[in-house]
Amino acid sequence: MAYTRGMQNPPNLRPDIAQPRLASDRREGQPSIGMVSLGCPKALVDSERILTRLRAEGYGISPDYSGADAVIVNTCGFLDSAKAESLEAIGEALSENGRVIVTGCLGAEPEYITGAHPKVLAVTGPHQYEQVLDAVHAAVPPSPDPFVDLLPARGISLTPRHYSYLKISEGCNHSCKFCIIPDMRGKLASRPHKAVMREAEKLVDAGVRELLVISQDTSAYGTDWKDREIKFPFLDLARDLGTLGAWVRLHYVYPYPHVAQVIDAMADAGNGLLPYLDIPFQHAHPDVLRRMARPAAAEKTLDRIAEWRSICPDITLRSTFIVGYPGETEAEFQTLLDWMDEAQLDRVGCFQYENVEGARSNALPDHVPDDVKQDRWDRFMQKAQAISEAKLEAKVGRVLPVIVDDVDEDGIATCRTMADAPEIDGNLFIDEGTEGLNPGDIVQVEVDEAGEYDLWGQRI
């Protein structure tokens, strides 16, 4: 259906099929490792860290199965469908290469993996970097050459050179009934402020023009520090990141009251914090949220949205929702549609509820039939499409800064505005006057056409 465009990660755009940005040259005798990275951007960062460590030890990174001495599959285990995809990827790697090491979220259930694929060499859990390296060493001993094996300052990236994900914490302190992330990745563990800033500075120095800040609960950053001097370290971190000269985009921000203080920085034109928030609202009816055990109160979110827009009128709000949650009635779903009319969110994704092994929501009564879930998803997305189309139409005639992601052989530039995160939001296309443009360039464009999720414009 037309209205699915841009609202969920399309299979051909997902980060999990990205390839390492490394030269394919391989010195004689150099062991080489392949990587299949599945799931969310947080898992992608884990893959980048593993590959960077391996490259520092002298391993080459193979872009295909045939050139690899072993393959690491970084799995996702959040949904049963993701587990199935992970098992399929493991099976493909075994078939194509035969020597496979499994890590990631699904690695927290080693028997589940070895039961389906007993020939894997090793299974490790999420962010167990040392165990992954130990498994690689056992399977393919390192053979470094300190005079040849040079590691780029940025390390190894699975994203284009001009943007990078910046993970600021692991784990989560919430107990949402549909989620097993705390079981797999543990409680909130925030990285030190200085370590995050040091990584961000290195990325910007290496040419990154956009930092995408990610964690399981970004606005809770630092609240796990018992000896902290300030109540909400997230505020200082966001402000400091905004001084580095790159675009800074905040993802997975829970709508706590202190978030309004970050909006002040977004409204400052001299700050790099983009006027963009990715907030996982999940639903709008208070009873559904209670059954989900969500930490936010739906009755307050509309007031907070209004407050944020009063501080920063150009702010873009993105969110994801679940339809067909156990017990969801037609009236509760209609409340969500009515809430959408009032909230007027700019970018919206939606998922049909599905059981996840180990999640408490599985035991809830009154599960919604699949055909009803599909119908509600269709109606929700039609609503989201109409809102998106109207909001984009209002941008026609405006001049906007855009970042260039790609210029194809026909000279068509694929770009993003400040309102568009890579992989999940829309694009702005320039079809003439693109000579000399390169990925990472930030240019001014006058919007002259709008679609359901994308824009077209002319460079000025």
Automatic annotation (TrEMBL):
Residue ranges with Polar residues bias: 1-11
Entry protein name: Ribosomal protein uS12 methylthiotransferase RimO
GO terms of molecular function: protein methylthiotransferase activity
Cellular component aspect of the GO annotation: ribosome
Protein's cellular compartments: Cytoplasm
Cofactor note text: Binds 2 [4Fe-4S] clusters. One cluster is coordinated with 3 cysteines and an exchangeable S-adenosyl-L-methionine.
Binding sites annotated in the UniProt record for [4Fe-4S] cluster 1: C40, C76, C105
Region Disordered, annotated ranges: 1-32
Domain Radical SAM core, first and last residues per copy: 158-390
